[in-house]
């Protein structure tokens, strides 16, 4: 027997989602750097990639992929290893290029590359599916129809597509960019350190 969604449950899910988007982590750090380094266009495209992958993790949770990871631990371990190495690689690149000056004449980043980089950052943490599953279990009823699952996915994607690009546009304002250029070495090293720690934590934890 399926149970219909309630407005209260959807609003609670959206509140949890907004807190997750705005909390400091690999996604927000990467979006900030992409926008401030490569401009608003690259930032918005990165945001779209982040948004799509985040919503797909929720869809995966709704479809029970966390059960697949539990039944086949090697699949989860493989994804976790790949994700950890990618975050560490990003951290190394940030540190290597931290002292390199940035000008507006620098070569633009390809649109496809910006979008895919956003997807890869959110793909890099397979724990997202367990987080999504936990939120879904707490907020929504146990039995959901296919239509309800589709609605939850569409709702998540809509929120992400509104909030993530809005953050990129805000971060891309001239004042924020000017401040970033002044503090670029410090910010890049700090962001790289945090991403590196997150990658190592993902790599080493059981």
Automatic annotation (TrEMBL):
Q: Which GO terms describe its molecular function?
A: amino acid transmembrane transporter activity
Subcellular location(s) of the protein: Cell membrane
This protein's record includes keyword Heme? no
Keyword Signal (UniProt): no
How does the UniProt record describe the way this protein sits in the membrane? Answer: Multi-pass membrane protein
- Keywords on record: Cell membrane, Membrane, Transmembrane, Transmembrane helix
Stretches that traverse the bilayer? 6-31, 43-65, 71-95, 115-140, 152-174
An annotated GO cellular component: plasma membrane
Protein name (database record) = LysE family transporter
Native species: Sulfitobacter aestuariivivens
Q: Kindly list the organism's lineage.
A: Bacteria, Pseudomonadati, Pseudomonadota, Alphaproteobacteria, Rhodobacterales
């Amino acid at each position: 027997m399926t149970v219909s969604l309630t407005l209260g449950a959807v609003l609670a899910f959206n509140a949890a989602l907004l807190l997750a988007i705005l909390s400091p982590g690999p996604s927000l750090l990467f979006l900030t750097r992409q926008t401030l380094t490569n401009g608003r266009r690259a930032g918005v495209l990165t945001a779209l990639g982040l948004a799509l992958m985040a919503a797909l993790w929720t869809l995966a949770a709704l479809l029970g992929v966390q059960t697949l990871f539990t039944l086949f631990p090697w699949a989860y371990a493989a994804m976790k290893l790949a994700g950890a190495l990618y975050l560490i690689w990003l951290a190394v690149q940030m540190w290597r290029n931290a002292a390199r000056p940035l000008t507006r004449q620098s070569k633009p980043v390809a649109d496809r590359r910006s979008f895919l980089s956003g997807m890869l950052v959110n793909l890099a943490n397979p724990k997202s599916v367990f987080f999504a599953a936990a939120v879904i279990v707490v907020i929504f009823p146990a039995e959901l129809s296919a239509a309800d699952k589709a609605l939850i996915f569409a709702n998540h994607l809509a929120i992400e597509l509104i909030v993530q690009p809005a953050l990129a546009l805000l971060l891309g304002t001239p004042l924020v960019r000017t401040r970033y250029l002044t503090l670029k070495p410090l910010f890049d090293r700090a962001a790289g350190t945090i991403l590196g720690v997150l990658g190592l934590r993902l790599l080493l934890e059981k």
